[in-house]
Amino acid sequence: MAAQLRLERCRVFRGYLLSLRTDFQRVCSALKLLMLHSAMTGPDLAGTLVHQQVMFECGMVVVSFRLFLYRWGLGGVDVTDLVKIFDLMRLELRRLVPATQAVGA
């Protein structure tokens, strides 16, 4: 019964990771569009975006491996770093959207 519960938790957690990746990709896509259409963004944002995308994908690999180990009863899984990266990009998008809207008005 414990093995079945662990398997179900892994399945649910994989769904969460898929949603997190999808949301992260949406935020990154929105930032890319803002960079294309706004004179207010610079190369700093492009560098940060690429860096954060690489860090996020590396983090996903680590979390996926830890989830694999967890499935077999070894260790646990922590997504704190992935969520921090996501929040950083989400806040950057939030910071830029009002500035972009004011320019277009």
Describe the structure.
The protein is mostly helical and 105 residues long. It has 3 helices and no strands. Helix 1 packs antiparallel against helix 2, helix 1 runs parallel beside helix 3 and helix 2 packs antiparallel against helix 3. The longest helix is centred in the first third of the chain and has 36 residues. The termini are far apart. The model has no long low-confidence stretch (mean pLDDT 89).
What keyword list fits this structure?
single chain; 105 residues; mainly alpha; 86% helix
Quick overview of this protein structure:
The protein has three helices and no strands. It is mainly α. α1 (2-37) packs antiparallel against α2.
Helix content: over 70%
Task: State the low-pLDDT regions, or none.
Answer: none
Distance between the termini: 60 Å
What profile does the largest beta sheet have? none
For this entry, what is the oligomeric state of its chains?
single chain
